[in-house]
Amino acid sequence: MVQPYAIKGHKRKRREENYDKEEVEQLLEEETAATATQDENKAEEITHELPGIPLVPFKSNNKTGVTFILERACLEVAKVGKSYQLLSSEDHANFLRKNNKNPADYRPDILHQALLTILDSPLNKAGRLRAVYVRTEKGVLFEVKPHVRIPRTYKRFSGIMLQLLQKLSITAVGKREKLLRVIKNPVTQYLPVNSRKIGFSYSSEKSTPIWDYVAAVSDDVDLVFVVGAMAHGKISNDYTDDFIAISGYPLSAAWCTYLICGALMQKWNIF
Hints:
Blueprint: H1 21-36, H2 40-46, E1 66-73, E2 77-80, E3 83-86, H3 93-98, H4 108-119, H5 122-125, E4 129-136, E5 141-144, H6 154-167, E6 169-171, E7 178-183, E8 196-200, H7 210-216, E9 223-228, E10 242-244, H8 253-267
Parallel strand pairs: 1-4, 1-9, 8-9, 8-10
Antiparallel strand pairs: 2-3, 4-5, 5-7, 6-7
C-alpha cells in the first residue's frame, strides 16, 4: 500500500503500508508545532480550502444534546494508477484482489449514508447535535462539525474524504474554521463530562426499543451513541456505559442512526 497522509511542505519517502493512528498523531504534533511559529499571514496561506463545502443554518442552544461516534469506518487511500484514490469495493475490486484484500470490507459509502442521516436530521437543525466523530479501521480519528453540509453524491464525498486524510483538515471557502479535522485519540477526551455512552450491536444480550431506552434517560444527561460504520463485525465496547440491541434484525448504520434520531426527536419534542 502507499502513503495516505501528508502535510504540505513535508517531503516523505514512499512507503508500502498506510499510516496508523500513532503516525497520524505524530503528524498532528508536528503540524501544531509548526503552526505555533508562523504569523497570521503564513497561517492563512496554508489553510486548506475546499470549494463546495457550505455551512448550513445552525441553531445552537445550551440544552442537553447528543454526540455520535461512528466506529470502524473503512477509509483507506492508495495510489491506483497515477493518482491517489479512496478505495471502495465498487470502483477498485480488481485492485483490492490483486493486493490480497477482501473488496467486501471496503465500503466508505456506509459512512456517507450515516453522515447524511445524522446531519440532515431535524435533530441537528434544532441544535441538539453536539458533534460527530469518526474513527477508521486504521484508528485515525476525525471530527465532523454539525453545521457541515455533506455532499449528496458519493463521488463528491469520496473526494472530500481523500483530501481530509491527506491534508488532515478542511475548511469552507472564506472561513478559517475547520469543518472536518483529524484529531488525537482517544475520543473520550472530547465527550461531555456528564454523558452516557451507548454502544449498539445486534448480538448484544440486552435488547430494548430505542424509544423506551432514551425516554428513560434523565433530561440533564448528554447522550453519546456509538455505531459501527463497517460492512460486518461489531464495535468495541471498552468505553461504553451500555451495550444494547435495538432490533431483532441486523441494521445498517444509516438505519440505526435514523432510529436514534427519531427517538430523540420524540423525547425532546422536535418536529
